[in-house]
């Protein structure tokens, strides 16, 4: 794809509205939106040109969301007006690299999932810390449908591993899953390998939100000598959809964390996490509304009212200061956002095999 050079075209390659204008635009919409995710590992020769072409075409269809483009492929979470969904699917199919790509429809497609379209060029579509040249990423683990997942999880000796970050698995997970206590996928990969070092011959089922992390992880673990690696096809999102359509028992309990303004969609009625402030059962996740902190926490409705959606008394007090005092002091304050660690979620995350 040739680069887009004209000034008029370049002006269409990014959002120019303020956050307030974006929220007003979304609030004024009268049509429901379809929210979904997608990914594909595919060779993209010129990611920057590919990004620009996609932005122009998708912006015209009022697509909102976040998409990463790299030489290894594309990874996106977006929403589109209901009436433009088929037009967007057709637009994807017109791009050879994206033709017939699976779209994982959200379980709870709330309108406010995204405010604008962001397409970013990255080195990788998922930061995994792996040397892709050392193994074949196309030799992936077996894909499991929802019925196959349930059958395998019922078999004695099956090991199920959550390949997500700790704050994702805190509010929902497959029953009996290993849920490693890590913030970054790149750290989780070698840790899981070490955890399972003496169980290489076991049936291992991995899962993540939409499947993309397990695509790479399963290929890596096969390369590292784990012959029976499988993955939940389409991740939690498609597993939940299949369970609903086929009237299957869901072995995933709680909420599925999603990377948009919803922060989560409910899969079952189970509440498996606790408020970080008072300890009562809760799975409402928010970002602390004290700007310099912005810590992601689990907070019940009562504590939200008491602390004005802040993660601590310290953040609440800081938020009440006059703007000029907050601006003057924020560079010298250390909030939970900079020290958030295991103490805040002690006893919540399962750290290994039982």
Detail the topology: elements first, then pairings.
Layout: H1 7-10, H2 19-28, E1 33-41, H3 47-59, E2 64-70, E3 73-81, H4 85-93, E4 104-105, E5 117-121, E6 142-144, H5 146-154, E7 159-162, H6 166-169, E8 172-174, H7 185-195, E9 204-207, H8 212-223, E10 229-232, H9 235-246, E11 252-257, E12 264-266, E13 285-287, E14 296-298, H10 301-307, H11 313-320, H12 323-329, H13 336-339
Parallel strand pairs: 2-5, 6-10, 7-9, 9-10
Antiparallel strand pairs: 1-3, 1-4, 2-3, 8-11, 11-12, 13-14
Describe the 3D structure:
- Strand 11 and strand 12 form a beta hairpin.
- The longest helix is centred in the first third of the chain and has 13 residues.
- The chain has a five-stranded mixed β-sheet with strand order 4-1-3-2-5.
- By secondary structure, the chain is of the alpha/beta class.
- It has three domains: 115 residues, Alpha-Beta Plaits, CATH 3.30.70.100; 118 residues, Oxidized Rhodanese, domain 1, CATH 3.40.250.10; 61 residues, no CATH class.
- It is an enzyme of class 1 (oxidoreductase).
């Amino acid at each position: 794809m040739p680069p887009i050079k004209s000034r008029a075209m370049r002006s269409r390659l990014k959002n120019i509205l303020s956050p307030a204008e974006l929220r007003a635009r979304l609030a004024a919409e009268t049509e429901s939106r379809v929210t979904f995710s997608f990914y594909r590992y595919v060779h993209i020769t010129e990611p920057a040109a590919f990004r620009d072409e996609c932005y122009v075409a998708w912006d015209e269809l009022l697509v909102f969301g976040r998409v990463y483009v790299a030489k290894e492929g594309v990874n996106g979470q977006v929403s589109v007006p209901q009436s433009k969904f088929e037009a967007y699917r057709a637009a994807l199919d017109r791009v050879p690299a994206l033709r017939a790509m699976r779209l994982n429809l959200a379980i709870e497609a709330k309108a406010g999932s995204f405010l604008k379209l962001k397409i970013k060029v990255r080195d990788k579509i998922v930061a995994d810390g792996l040397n892709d040249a050392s193994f074949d990423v196309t030799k992936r683990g077996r894909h499991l449908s929802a019925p196959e997942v349930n059958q395998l999880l019922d078999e004695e000796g099956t090991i199920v591993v959550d390949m997500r970050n700790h704050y994702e698995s805190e509010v929902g997970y497959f029953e009996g899953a290993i849920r490693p206590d890590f913030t970054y996928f790149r750290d989780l990969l070698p840790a899981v390998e070490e955890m399972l070092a003496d169980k290489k011959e076991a049936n291992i089922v991995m899962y993540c939100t939409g499947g993309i992390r397990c695509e790479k992880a399963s290929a890596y673990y096969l390369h590292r000598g784990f012959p029976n690696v499988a993955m939940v096809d389409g991740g939690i999102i498609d597993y939940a959809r299949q369970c609903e359509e086929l009237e299957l028992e869901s072995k995933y309990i709680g909420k599925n964390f999603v990377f948009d303004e919803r922060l989560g969609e409910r899969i079952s009625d189970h509440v498996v996490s606790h408020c970080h402030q008072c300890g009562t059962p809760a799975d409402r996740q928010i970002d602390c509304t004290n700007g310099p902190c912005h810590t992601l926490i689990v907070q019940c409705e009562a504590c939200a009212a008491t602390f004005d959606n802040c993660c601590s008394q310290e953040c609440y007090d800081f938020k009440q200061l006059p703007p000029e005092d907050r601006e003057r002091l924020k560079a010298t304050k250390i909030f939970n956002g900079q020290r958030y660690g295991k103490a805040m979620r002690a006893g919540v995350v399962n750290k290994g095999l039982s």
